[in-house]
Amino acid sequence: MQHDYMTPKHTKSAENEQKEQPKRLRKFQRDYEILDEKTEDEKKRETEKSTGNSSEKKFSEMNLIEKVDYFLNRSEQAPKLRSEIITSEQTYRGIITDYKDDHVLIRLGRRASSTEIPMNQVEEINLLGF
Question: SS3 of 55, please?
Answer without folding.
Answer: coil
